[in-house]
Amino acid sequence: MANIVWCNIAMFLLVSLFLTDDAVVVLDALDNVPNNIKNQPYRTGYHFQPPKNWMNGPMIYKGIYHLFYQWNQNGAVMDVNKTVWGHATSTDLINWITLSPAIRPSRPSDINGCWSGSVTILPNGKPVILYTGNDRYNRQVQNLVKPKNLTDPYLRHWTKSPENPLVTPSPVNHINSSAFRDPTTAWFGRDGRWRITTGSQEGRRGLAILHTSKDFVIWKQSPKPLHYHDGTGMWECPDFFPVARTDSRGLDTSFSSGPMVKHVLKVSLTDTFNDYYTIGTYDEVRDVYVPDKGFVQDETAPRYDYGKFYASKTFYDSVNQRRILWGWVNESSPEKDNIKKGWAGLQAIPRKVWLDESGKRLVQWPVKEIERLRTTQVKWGNKVLKGGGSVMEVHGVTAPQADVEVFFKVSGFDLEKADVIEPGWTDPQLICSQRNASSGLGPFGLMVLASKNMEEYTSVNIRIFRAGENSKEHVVVMCSDQSTSSLEKGNDKTTYGAFLDISPYQPISLRTLIDKSIVESFGGKGKTCITSRVYPKLAIGERTHLFAFNKGSQNVNVLSLSAWSMKSSL
């Protein structure tokens, strides 16, 4: 039980609200936050968080976005037996109002907790939710809820199906009752049947179990799982969706397979608490998913985000024809500090996600709506960060709450002077952890949430190496280094790193969203993403600074830098 983490039905968070079961409350997210929490230095300004306590599918209905999240109303720690579905709505994915919880434990099929699940929009436009309940026998079973009033665009009341539970584990169907959770959004097949896949585990084999239904009530287990892989352990929070091969538009989950469509299977591995995805082909006749050559559904697979980002979930935004990704970002502070703050966990900024031109990776970018929060802008052009430790402060923005996008350029002559990468340097996180290993080209980038004299800072940077002594190829590494983020000794200060598949002969883009205790970074226009949580002791409020730097020996040009102060969302 201790290893259970809920998927992003919308997101996770810590906050305490006590509402009656019949209450229909629409609350302004900021006004509902107690002042002792609202004014805390680490509580974010424009990331979604419940008013307080511990938190965790999204959808759009009648022009309104809905975010459902796993929430412990009673404290800032996980309690699987008291989990409810928090509910918030928005017209722009940025400003949210909170409603009373959508689903609470109340029936034998969910009395020990309402866990993760997904929303499906039926052909008549009616949304329904399938979710995992922890039943009175502590078995994980799948349940259905429907809106009570479809004319209410806020969908404030939900009704549980009298047929619950719809899907149960048993030795007959070889489903582990303690490892059977998180049903996906359903997709509609050409044979007139709905399909869902649910995460599971059989020994050390991870599985995406497949069920089909004609009426969304009676579900039959398929003879084979959608996909499985040995040695991976439990697959939590599976997500299965199509992507277009030719452009960045999103596709409905039920979009038929074809030569211009690929499919993505994402799983959250409890062994590592990271999300991994593969790209492949869905065989609609055999009802199986086959990853493309080079992809394996294990720890070698690509990740959405190489920092703190777990239990993610996508949904199709039919209004704007895009697929949007949500991810849960947990704390890096000790549990005792979370309890003292009165909250824990938040949601990453929603990201548009699509298949890049190579067909071998997904690209992510913050939804365009976030730009509405931009205010004061500072612009640089054609500055030089000289080699040997150049540091330049970015003045004129609210450094603790900002959006920064910079384009670096390295000359071809200087690229030839890059250090040769060591043969054993196959793990980018270890490369990034070598803080004193300054090379010819890097690290260079941004120091964010920094104190004036740089006793504290989080470094988001780029390093470039030659692939071999006589090679003209280069290896680019992107890092988010938390090791100097805080003088507080009790925090997790892991240094994150990932390879960035770009040509260093072209301008290198780096965008970073800074919001008091979270740093979300996007390299190569979203080809690689890293999220960090940090808690400075000195770099707080007006004492926070922002710098561009270069610790490599060769000069690096800043072609352009744009930094915006960000106002808080509701």
From TrEMBL:
One Gene Ontology MF term: hydrolase activity, hydrolyzing O-glycosyl compounds
Signal peptide: 1-23
Chain ranges of the Glycosyl hydrolase family 32 N-terminal domain: 47-366
Cited InterPro entries: Fructan_Metab_Enzymes, Glyco_hydro_32, Glyco_hydro_32_C, Glyco_hydro_32_N
GO biological process: carbohydrate metabolic process
Keywords from the named record: Glycosidase, Hydrolase, Signal
Residues annotated as domain Glycosyl hydrolase family 32 C-terminal: 369-565
Protein family membership: Belongs to the glycosyl hydrolase 32 family.
Protein name: Concanavalin A-like lectin/glucanase domain superfamily
Organism: Arabidopsis suecica
